[in-house]
Amino acid sequence: MKTVDELSPVITEENINRRVAEIGSAITREYQDKDLVIIGILKGAFIFMADLVRKIDLPIEVDFVRLQSYGSGMESSGQVTITKDVELSLKDKHVLIVEDIVDTGYTLKYLKEVLSLHETASVKICCLIDKKERRKVDIEVEYVGFEIEKGFLVGYGLDYDEQYRQLPGIFHLTPRYEAKGFVPSER
Ligand code: IMP
Ligand code: MG
Q1: pTM score > 0.85 for this model?
Q2: I need a surface site. Which of 53, 84, 86, 179 has the fewest CB within 10 A?
Q3: What is the tens place of the pLDDT at every residue in 121-136?
Q4: Which residues participate in catalysis according to the annotation?
């Protein structure tokens, strides 16, 4: 069955750019004279990460991890595994995790605990979108781009079934299942 997804704008490209620049400045102020490693979570954070690091006016190191969380298509479960680990040494470094969305919190709680085992100087979190109301585990997020109450979002790195990551803004997605033989109207 073919899906006809409905997208409605939530955050424009301009608003994202402005907010990312603000967060970059705040990070630049906080990490003066500190060894900072920025760790992006693949794949969702790749665009946010790319924009954010260019707004940080400090010498930094960059790395990525890839995580897999088992669960249904639209919600993660408590079970998270690392499928691509960090490659840089994190010992005595200040680590900033960059994530697209904090939803239940399971993913970041797990990653923060794992990274803390590397004898880091600190581990903090920066996320583009915080769905605070849906939190299931307590986790502190130091830098938040936008707080969004609910709904499933795509664009600017965020996907639904690997689609829509390349959209420059953020959209709310409502999947619509096209009935057999149904032809969507041009209007
Ligand atoms: P959680 O905080 O462990 O529940 O999971 C957060 C992860 O779920 C994020 O890294 C996203 O990949 C994914 N996720 C949660 N909400 C959305 C959404 O609205 N759109 C796309 N991905 C989402
Ligand atoms: Mg993700």
Answers
A1: yes
A2: 179
A3: 999 999 999 999 889 9
A4: 103
